[in-house]
Design brief:
Elements (H helix, E strand, L loop, with lengths): L5 H7 L15 H14 L6 H6 L19 H26 L13 H24 L6 H28 L3 H7 L6 H20 L1
């Protein structure tokens, strides 16, 4: 067994009951990673999780050596920030683009159906792009992550529309859901589909 530093134990063993019977020792996957990295670094008092988070572990030693659920909570916070931030972008960028097609008085400058088509295509392309970027940092549980992303982004878009779009458009909630709100269901559908495809690809290559 290879021991780890107290700093490493602080991050890895936040839930110490997870590793019953070996609380001060590294689980087997960490041992393998630590041995491999120690051959290059020449030391055994390192923490592979924190060094990976700092970008100090070579790419060849990264995932899948470290299971996702063993990452420090700080990494989860970062991922949550990306989830919420990207969700806001899926609403904000189409909203800013729409301002180009309306006068300050809210009158359409072009055919309203053309405007809706342009915004729909842009929103779909943006959403798919941001989903793919988000999944670039996901290494497991792809379907679950896709469902979570879809639900969070759906709620973000609905809430921002209710707070901002409805007052500007003078639209009641029922009309909004019929004309706009239902379209956001594309988000969880696409996200779940991408997650499922990623899950299948991971199973074939794994």
């Amino acid at each position: 067994m290879v021991h780890v530093s107290p700093l490493c134990r602080t991050g890895i063993y936040a839930d110490r009951e997870r590793f019953r019977g070996g609380r001060d020792r590294v689980p087997e996957p960490f041992q393998r990673l630590l041995r491999r990295f120690s051959e290059d670094a020449g030391r055994e008092d390192i923490c592979p999780v924190f060094m990976q988070g700092a970008g100090l572990i070579p790419e060849r030693l990264r995932w899948p050596d470290i299971p996702l659920e063993w990452y420090p909570s700080s990494m989860n916070v970062t991922q949550t920030g990306r989830l919420i931030g990207f969700g806001i972008l899926t609403w904000l960028l189409p909203f800013l683009l729409s301002l180009l097609f309306y006068s300050p008085e809210g009158i359409p400058l072009y055919d309203v159906f053309l405007i809706k088509t342009i915004l729909l295509v842009f929103s779909t392309a943006l959403g798919v792009f941001l989903i793919l970027v988000y999944f670039g940092n996901i290494h497991a549980h792809f379907v679950r992550e896709g469902i979570l992303l879809g639900i969070v982004w759906l709620l973000i878009n609905w809430v921002l529309d209710i707070l901002i779009l409805l007052p500007l458009a003078g639209m009641d909630f029922g009309t909004y859901m019929a004309q706009v709100g239902v379209r956001y269901l594309n988000i969880p559908i696409i996200a779940t589909g991408i997650g499922y495809a990623a899950e299948q690809a991971a199973q074939r290559t794994g």
